[in-house]
Amino acid sequence: MRINTKVRYAIRLMADIAKHSHGQPVTLKDIAERQDLPKYYLSQLAAPLKHAALLKSIWGNKGGYLLNRPAEEMTLLDVLEAVDGPVAVLDCVLDPGVCDRSDFCECLGIWRNVNEAIVKTLEGYSLADLAGTSRPVSRNGDLCIIGPAQQEVPHGGAGNKPSHVHPTAGKSSKRQAGPVAEG
After folding, report:
1. What b/e sequence results for 69-99 when a residue is b if at least 16 CB atoms lie within 10 Å of its CB, and e otherwise?
2. Which of 5, 176, 172, 179 is nearest to 86 (CA)?
3. Element (H, E) at 111
């Protein structure tokens, strides 16, 4: 799976609003300047974010955009799904009917596990985390140290399995990948 430009820019847009709004609307012009992104492209991204009820627009002279709920309650998964749809490393992970081999595929369970790991990771980070309005995140070797509780999450390297997850991880996804096939 590759995170495309649309998703990256949407996350930057939302994190910028989370960091700079202070309860006041933020203009796309200001976001574009701070993020060095095209204003026109940001306006195209705002539409699906509004449709997903993540953003609200304020019209008028002092208008702009506000988050529709607190930054701590919006995850990176929310933003990704708003602009790009559900996470799917392969089509068969979400809809086994698209593949004739799904009933006996040796790899389907693995692909579902990979997909769910991506979903849980994206669910584990809020816009507040990115905007610096929540727990600080720092890297220390192979561990990701998160916030005041100093919870450790293995980061990088082959064979690392998380022993503790990010504090906001574990919320159930909007769609489940289904049971893991044994093979």
Report:
1. eebbebbbbbbbbbbeeebbbbebbbebeee
2. 176
3. helix 108-123
pLDDT digits (tens, 9 = 90+) for 85-127: 999 999 999 998 999 998 899 999 999 999 999 999 999 999 9
Structural domains of the chain ordered from first start: 5-72 (1.10.10.10)
Q: Determine the Cα–Cα distance for residues 167 and 180; give it in Å rounded to an integer.
A: 25
Taking only the tens place, the pLDDT of each residue in 136-175 is 454 444 444 444 333 444 444 444 434 334 444 444 444 4
Paired tokens of 183: 């093979």
Vertex 166, ends 165 and 168: CA angle to 5°? 120
Cα 31 from Cα 107, distance rounded (Å): 43
Q: Full-prediction pTM beyond 0.85? A: no
